[in-house]
């Protein structure tokens, strides 16, 4: 996804537009069945309201998420190292939007006239990006079990969860709402989560999640450095042109998918799963799980990599990989 805190009116508008075009046809995404994702196709049959009714599919030639085929990705020696410049002081709150929880950052464009207290931002540049992109929020997608949950996959391998750090092009646009409609408007970093040892940086966030258990609840959350959720190696990544994975699904996103996953504990993901899709008033409560979009066709796109998978074998000093 990229859950859009501000795009609801936009999504509504686009929904209306689409309804007119499709004359009420319902479009429900179905994840293609393969050996690894049959189970997730099954769980998606209990559709979240996000995916009910007509969907906005603008163009549809660069939709996300996708399966990253490692051997089909193309090494691009011009891909520079990524430069995240995050300021923990810009962190403001955590919001359960009924599909995920969003950790939101101050990304206002106001020019400060007070030189002692200039407006601060968290920004991302470098990598495949030519402009500076401002962090507005991050969120996760996860499954009901550790067997699936990520939106992207690597050679069909599913991870239990995936982090999305959403940035918008502040060189070209004044607002996220403008950027979300443009080809080069957004840059999203994707980080896979795998089960392992407890992630100490993530724990500060996990500790506040019970306060946003229900849909529409918000809790103040400050001084969180999003860089602590990046893997140790941010130089190795895949990048491709894609879309938002929640309505309005606009094809605005330069995706930057980290090769190295981060480790979190089963207990930490269990707290994610204790959240609810539903508000406190609703009679039937629904666990917030399986909040990912089905995969989309590549349609001739090239996935570029910043690293050379065939020349640089990894040496972990561990036993050989036993598969998954
Ligand atoms: Zn997302």
Automatic annotation (TrEMBL):
Residues 40-307 form the Alpha-carbonic anhydrase domain. PROSITE patterns: ALPHA_CA_1, ALPHA_CA_2. It comes from Esox lucius (Northern pike). Transmembrane segments: none annotated. Keywords: Lyase, Metal-binding, Zinc. GO terms for molecular function: carbonate dehydratase activity; zinc ion binding. Coiled coil: none annotated. InterPro entries: CA_dom (IPR001148), CA_dom_sf (IPR036398), Carbonic_anhydrase_a-class (IPR023561), Carbonic_anhydrase_a-class_CS (IPR018338). Reversible hydration of carbon dioxide. PANTHER family: CARBONIC ANHYDRASE (PTHR18952), CARBONIC ANHYDRASE 5B, MITOCHONDRIAL-RELATED (PTHR18952:SF25). GO terms for biological process: monoatomic ion homeostasis. SUPFAM superfamilies: Carbonic anhydrase. SMART domains: Carb_anhydrase. This is Carbonic anhydrase. The lineage of its organism: Eukaryota, Metazoa, Chordata, Craniata, Vertebrata. It catalyses: hydrogencarbonate + H(+) = CO2 + H2O. It holds the Pfam family Carb_anhydrase. The keyword Membrane does not apply. GO terms for cellular component: mitochondrion. Its cofactor is Zn(2+). Belongs to the alpha-carbonic anhydrase family.
């Amino acid at each position: 996804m990229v859950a859009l805190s501000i795009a609801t009116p936009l999504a509504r508008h686009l929904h209306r537009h689409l309804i007119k075009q499709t004359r009420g046809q319902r479009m429900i995404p179905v994840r293609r069945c393969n050996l690894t994702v049959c189970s997730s196709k099954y769980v998606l049959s209990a559709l979240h309201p996000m995916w009910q009714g007509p969907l906005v599919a603008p163009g549809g030639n660069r939709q996300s998420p996708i399966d990253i085929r490692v051997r089909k990705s193309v090494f691009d020696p011009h891909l520079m190292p990524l430069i995240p410049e995050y300021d923990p002081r810009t962190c403001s709150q955590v919001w359960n939007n009924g599909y995920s929880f969003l950790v939101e950052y101050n990304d206002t464009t106001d020019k400060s006239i007070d030189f002692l207290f200039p407006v601060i931002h968290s920004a991302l540049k470098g990598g495949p990006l030519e402009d500076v992109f401002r962090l507005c929020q991050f969120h996760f997608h996860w499954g009901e079990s550790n067997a699936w949950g990520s939106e992207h996959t690597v050679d069909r391998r599913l991870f239990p969860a995936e982090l999305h750090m959403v940035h918008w092009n502040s060189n070209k646009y004044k607002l996220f709402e403008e950027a979300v409609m443009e080809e080069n408007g957004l840059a999203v970093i994707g980080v896979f989560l795998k089960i392992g040892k407890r992630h100490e940086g993530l724990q500060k966030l996990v500790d506040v999640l019970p306060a946003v258990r229900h849909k529409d609840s918000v809790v103040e959350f400050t001084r969180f450095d999003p860089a602590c959720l990046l893997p140790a190696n941010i130089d190795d990544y895949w990048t491709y042109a894609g879309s938002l994975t929640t309505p309005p699904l606009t094809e605005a996103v330069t995706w930057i998918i980290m090769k190295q996953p981060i480790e979190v504990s089963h207990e930490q993901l269990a707290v994610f799963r204790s959240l609810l899709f539903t508000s406190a008033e609703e009679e039937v409560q629904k666990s917030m799980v399986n909040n990912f979009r089905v995969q989309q066709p590549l349609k001739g796109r090239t996935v570029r990599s910043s690293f050379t998978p065939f020349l640089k074998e990894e040496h972990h000093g561990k036993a050989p990989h036993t598969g998954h």
